[in-house]
Here is the input.
Amino acid sequence: KPSAPILVLPIFYQSNDMLLWGDDNAWLGAWRGATEHGGLVPVILPSSVSHLFADVSVENMLVDDYDPKQDVTLNTIMQAVDARKTLVVEARYSMNRSTNKILLQIAITNVTKDGEMSRQVRTFSGKEGEDLDAVLAMAATNIIGREVTMYREEMLASGDNKAFITVNIPIEHFAQWQEIKSYIDHLDFIKTVKLQSIATHNATLVLE
Here is the structure.
């Protein structure tokens, strides 16, 4: 099943400016492209809920010393969009002149709705001659892909990824039904068998 949404705040450092919203933020554009078709982990970007950021500065979204009891701005926005966590992704780039490759340094701060925070820095290198937009798109796709992988692992660990199938089984008499039920009970890949309905000549089972 799909995850609850995550709020992603792509902060882009360009010259002496910190950009979070607006067309000047190429990093935000990369995240739009990486998440436009939805997916297992829905992403909310600041541009899609701009009314919540009307009186918020970019500096307010920097969470180096995040305190859930003090930093009410981020708490309020997370609650308003019902996000299970926020990713503050700060992107800085440089050009390696000797290789003609763009180097991205991404600081990723993960803040859960329970107030837990973790931080990591990842580096992405473009291909020779590749432009900035392409490298940003690659990095955004990689980061959201990792979020999807982690969510799948959480679902596997919690057991919330149950698959089920409903089957109709023809039966001629009660003894045959008992034989069929005993056979299904001994199949290792089927964890539970639920009898949905039973009639004179057939039974409907839900197998998980």
